[in-house]
Amino acid sequence: MIRRPPRSTHCISSAASDVYKRQLLYSVILEGEDVKVISEAIRSNKTLANIIFYCSRMGAVKANTFFEALNTNTALTQLTVAESNLTNENGGTIGEMLKVNKKLIELDLSFNDITTEGVKLISEALKENKHLKQFEINYNGIGDEGAIIIGEMLKINSTLTKLSISGNKIGDTHV
Q1: Which three-class secondary structure state does DSSP give residue 69?
Q2: HEC string of 76-91?
């Protein structure tokens, strides 16, 4: 059952619209079989270009099902999974998806709980990925060590044109 979450300072209420047939917007709590049903549809969808899961609270286990579905998706170019309770557990699955998905060019994982361990797995995949151009991982918990890992990845990856890591307690000023 899909239901709306309580309002928060980061949540923006959105709904799927007939006007935006190539974009799926969610600001809902995904429960039970919701993520599984959406994931199955994503596996074979050939038209949906942009998905925004904002405040979905899907959590690590459900999110892994979704990211695995993106391994075979050939249409999606933009993905936001923000404030959705992602953790380091998702780092490996996101990394594997980034290794095989040749279409995704923008990924936003802001306002989750991904720390150094998860960033390491994602960064390893980004060393190989030649398609992603924009990556946002704002307000997670990557810290100084995670920033160093991202810096090492940037020495190898020449495809990224935008990287956003603000709000991650990096350095003395906690940028």
Answers
A1: helix
A2: CCEEEEECCCCECHHH
